[in-house]
């Protein structure tokens, strides 16, 4: 009876291990975020709103592959370096947009800085810094490798050896 219990235990452990090693990672898709939520990209209306974009960005995790949608009227979006962001200076902007509906793809990890080209708007809080992380892996369309081939066999073999030795030990004790 003890041997059959151990055999069942070993089989269950091995089955669980095979399921874990054979499952493919879940595909994660890129997301598009509307900057500022429902308010969009605009000059903050009061002194209480000067940090509105910093608060908004703190609620979102940005990954490589995601994109930002800036919706605005009579304004601009300028991608700047860190200095341009902190000094509200867009004169050396990396990219300038003024179409009212700008989508910017986040292509690499690290901070990305945006300001309004109007220095007064920027000084009143119309600027955004996002930290882009690269935790998402791109979707993989190839099939998952068999758990019994390649590196997977190194994970299964110790379990099989352990179960075999355990069964032999129990058999001798009976």
TrEMBL record:
Residues covered by the Phytocyanin domain: 31-134
Subcellular location: Cell membrane
Keywords assigned: Cell membrane, Disulfide bond, Glycoprotein, GPI-anchor, Lipoprotein, Membrane, Signal, Transmembrane, Transmembrane helix
Alphabetical list of Gene3D superfamilies matching this protein: Cupredoxins - blue copper proteins
InterPro entries: Cupredoxin (IPR008972), ENL_dom (IPR041846), Phytocyanin-like (IPR039391), Phytocyanin_dom (IPR003245)
Chief place of localization: membrane
Membrane topology annotation: Lipid-anchor; GPI-anchor
Signal peptide residues on this chain, from the entry's feature table: 1-30
Record-annotated membrane-spanning stretches: 151-172
Family designation: Belongs to the early nodulin-like (ENODL) family.
Protein's UniProt name: Phytocyanin domain-containing protein
């Amino acid at each position: 009876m003890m041997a059959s219990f151990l055999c069942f235990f070993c089989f269950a452990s091995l089955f669980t291990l095979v399921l874990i090693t054979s499952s493919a990672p879940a595909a994660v898709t890129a997301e598009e975020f509307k900057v500022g939520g429902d308010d969009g990209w605009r000059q903050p209306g009061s002194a209480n709103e000067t940090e509105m974009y910093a608060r908004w960005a703190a609620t979102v995790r940005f990954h490589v592959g995601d994109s930002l949608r800036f919706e605005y009227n009579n304004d601009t979006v300028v991608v700047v370096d860190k200095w341009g962001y902190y000094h509200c200076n867009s004169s050396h902007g990396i990219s300038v947009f003024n179409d009212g509906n700008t989508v910017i793809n986040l292509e690499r990890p690290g901070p990305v800085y945006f300001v309004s080209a109007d220095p007064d708007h920027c000084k009143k809080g119309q600027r955004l810094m996002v930290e882009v992380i690269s935790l998402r892996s791109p979707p993989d369309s190839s099939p998952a490798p068999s758990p019994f081939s390649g590196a997977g066999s190194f994970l299964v073999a110790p379990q099989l050896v352990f179960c075999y030795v355990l069964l032999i030990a129990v058999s001798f004790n009976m």
